[in-house]
Amino acid sequence: MESFIKFTNQSQGRDRIFRTTQYACAFIKYLLRNKAARQELVKKLQSLESNMSSGRKLFRLGNTVNAVDAAKRTLRLSDPVLRFCLTVANINRALYFVCDNVLWARNVGLIRDIDKERWSFNASRCYYFSLVMSLTRDVYVITQIMVLRARQRRHQQKVDQNQNDHRDVASVLVPKLDAFLFLLYESLKSNPPVVLDTVKNLCDLFIPLDRLGIYQTNAGVVGFCGLVSSLLGILSVVRPTLKITP
Fold first, then answer.
1. Radius of gyration over alpha carbons of the chain, in Å?
2. Sign of CA dihedral 239, 242, 243, 246
3. How far is CA 32 from CA 18, 37, 45, 51, 245, in A?
4. For 157-203, how does the pLDDT look when each residue is reduced to its tens digit (9 = 90+)?
5. What is the pTM of this model?
6. Helices (H), the chain
7. For the packed helices 80-107 and 39-59, what is the interaxial angle rounded to 10 degrees?
8. Using CA atoms, how far apart are residues 80 and 75, in angstroms rounded to an integer?
9. pLDDT tens-digit profile of 70-88?
């Protein structure tokens, strides 16, 4: 109970709950779309989904400042690839939140003379670029881990060869592709935060891809991917050790 209270006291935790509810409604609504007897339930789910989306926009009002501050921090990273990927990702997140805040102001009537579709499209585009750069970071981190493990394995093989004075049989029998896949599996197995972040970003990517028309699926796929991503997001908040750094 204490961990749940701590989780719900965080604005990020409340946003994750709202997001999970929003995409769960979207997914269930898609599954029930052709059932005439469930139309009343579908309307309720539609209303709940809309309310969750509006609530999340309210939670995100201060996130632009957080994203800009995160971009300033990532500019100080020593690794040039991580510095570039994360800084660009955070800048795009900041721009996404600006568009999102404008859309919220438009929905509540504070601003009227704006093109809602254009701002929504720009928000999706910024979100898309942010996810692409985050995924690039994930691939880079995975590659670095694989290179490190490959070096460790080669070193161990050399030690074994010096001791046994013969070649490692496994290195001869295992095909290169199988060896690569096994190395990838070992690398991911030993780094759950990287796996979690990669799967989460891949699931999130389907959302802007569909909205931008780059790769259109359907509301069911978007709802399911958003739901999976939201659950993984909750897991990373509940267990900070599963959150990738930097």
1. 22
2. positive
3. 21, 9, 10, 20, 40
4. 665 665 555 445 444 445 666 777 888 888 888 899 999 999 999 99
5. 0.86
6. 2-8, 11-31, 39-59, 63-74, 80-107, 116-164, 169-173, 176-189, 192-212, 219-238
7. 120
8. 9
9. 999 999 999 999 999 999 9
